[in-house]
Amino acid sequence: MSDDNERLELHQFPYSHYNEKVRWALDFKNVPHRRISYLPGPHMTAIRKLAGTSATPVLRVGGVVVAGSAEIIDVLEGQYPEPPLYPADPVQRRAALDLQAYFDEEVAPAVRRALFAELLAEPAYLCRLFASEKPLLTRLAYRAMQPAIRPVMRHMMQIDSEHLGTARHTIRAALDRVATQAGPGGYLIGDSFSIADLAAAALLAPACGPSHPDMELPRPRPARIEAWLAEWADHPGTLWVRSIYAKHRPHRVLPLRVAAD
Ligand SMILES: N[C@@H](CCC(=O)N[C@@H](CS)C(=O)NCC(=O)O)C(=O)O
Q1: Which of 21, 25, 187, 220 is deepest in the core (most CB within 10 A)?
Q2: CATH number for position 185
Q3: From the alpha carbon of 44, which atom of ligand 1 is closest?
């Protein structure tokens, strides 16, 4: 293990699909790291100070700070090339990165918008997702803050009737796409696992309920969360996401997480 590995920190939200891309890349490349989890809302000051933007994931390696899931994975691919996430063939590499951009820019916001429309109606469950690792007083304070945080989240994620209708359409189109584009080996680009499969599966995971401790929504679940998962459960794209998780998402003991706020 190099000194850099020992000092590598992922500043993240648990269960967040953009953060899951980076967790997956780190685990896939077997890179030791520390995960530092924040509460959505109160995270802003600390993450802005660290990265100049409030969005997670943020990776810190020694004195270097990198923000954005695609940017972080690009750095990891350069520093830890084995096993590769980028196809060796330049045409396939371009296609895989383009597919990642489609999932990052179009699909991920739609998944998040539609899921949070349900989660914001279940504040106790939302707090369980994001605050369960925190001390009791922090958990109670976060629960009490929910009425103030909710309108900010609705605004930031454009949770309104117009955008929600489009979001469900975008999710279905993305599930259709992975189901039809996956080749005989089950991969989106070429005949091996790549960044395209990782990005698609991680960013669709909140709708597909893959069996992995970093993304499986904890039980018992409120009825509206069960209904959300049931809406997508039988889609062939959901089965594809679950199979990619089963084959390529390492199951391992979670690294130490450190409370950040
Ligand atoms: N394009 C960015 C998007 C990151 C993003 O939207 N992160 C969300 C997590 S779901 C976030 O931290 N939102 C809170 C904020 O922006 O303050 C990426 O790929 O990392």
Answers
A1: 21
A2: 1.20.1050
A3: 17
